[in-house]
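Before relying on records like the one below, remember that each one covers exactly one chain. Contacts with other chains, cofactors or solvent are not represented anywhere in the record.
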Amino acid sequence: MAKQTISSGRRSAIDSAERRWRVVWLLTITVLLAAALVASAAILLAHRFYRMQVVSGFVPLMCWIVTVALLVHAAKTGRWRTWTWFVPAAVLALEMVPLVPLMMLLAIFGSSDGKVVVVGVSPDGRYEAVTHDVNAVIDTLCGVRLRERDGLFSRQTRVWTAAEGQRCPRRVSFTETNTISIIDARGREITAHFDPDRLEVAQVLEPPS
């Protein structure tokens, strides 16, 4: 009778330990899937919200790899119920099917900013103009972008890109709260008017070539 009681108590302790590990495992999987989803969204939105460019494309990739490894291990052990690993596997598949092709297209065709230099700040301090490298098919061009200076969700928009073989502008400045003046490498002045609310360039006036 005593042996039966000890055996029952040991089995109960083992079952309790397995339940705790199952909860920890499920929480880990949930955190990994959520982190991959958030990181993927940040990468896809980085062209508009430039501060999100700090998120590397390796973040969702590593989250997916670790998740797959944990799922494979759970399936091989055979000690846990099927739904414990099957449901997270289904969620992982639903997450990866639309995101992986988008991430691949972004890696191939997306443009990353290089050599970003702040060249002008608006009179009210809310906006800044930056020059940056634009990766073209053959050459690297120089572009001008307008950016907000307002935290994580600061937006940016394209203002102007120099012609092929032309250096960055000599000067970029805000002549008004919603107007940017660009003096290109040839000394020509380009004027860009933008909508502060939507942060979109409304009009670009260039002199005849």
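The first helix runs from residue 2 to 45.
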